[in-house]
Amino acid sequence: MNLEMLSRVRKELTITASALYETILALAERVNRKVQVMQLHWQATTVLQRIDQVAMETGRLIVASLTNRPPGLTQHPSSFSPKQLDSLITHSMIQIRALKNLLVQTDEKIRDLKLEVIHENLLALQHDLTLRSAKIERLIVAPHAAAVGQPLRAWPRSSSVHLVTVMRGAYLLPPSETLVVQKGDILVFIGPELELTAAIEWFTNRSS
Predict the structure, then answer these.
(1) Domain range for residue 166?
(2) What is the pTM of this model?
(3) Do 142 and 71 share a domain, yes or no?
(4) pLDDT (tens digit per residue) in 152-174
(5) How many domains does the chain fold into?
(6) Cα–Cα distance between 51 and 73 in angstroms, integer?
(7) In a domain, 36, yes or no
(8) Average pLDDT of 116-125?
């Protein structure tokens, strides 16, 4: 009996240690991702500053040349020929184009890291909802739906189903009772799986 209990305790400790290890790894990955995002934001800020510097330096040299005043930089002449001006502007454009490409790449990396975080949060939310026989649902209001042109207070639903938000164009609209539903609206619902299926029919089925 003692050996059986000892074996069970050892097994539970092993499972607990494994879960703790996975939790620590998940936290470490999340912290590392946040650090990466901060570093990329700093890099993007540096690139923007460099773009401003190149543009300002080029403009100062052009103005100094056109007004025949020394630009204050010994490595440049006080005036430029049209060919030299063209070369200066072309060189500056090449620099700025390269910096903008770097900025776009940095922005894409930031967006990818943020999408990873969002994906993890959505998976965790989906897991929590599944344990409770619930789900989150996204739908687009059909052009022929009974809901089109109607205020949300006319929506036949159960108290367990909630409309989280209404996305219309570039805006997030609060789902107030007076909000009139339009075709093409993107709606996000949350609630028990069985009740949710029936509740969203008003936004997809034609009025009888």
Answers:
(1) 134-203
(2) 0.48
(3) no
(4) 999 988 788 889 999 998 899 99
(5) 2
(6) 19
(7) yes
(8) 74
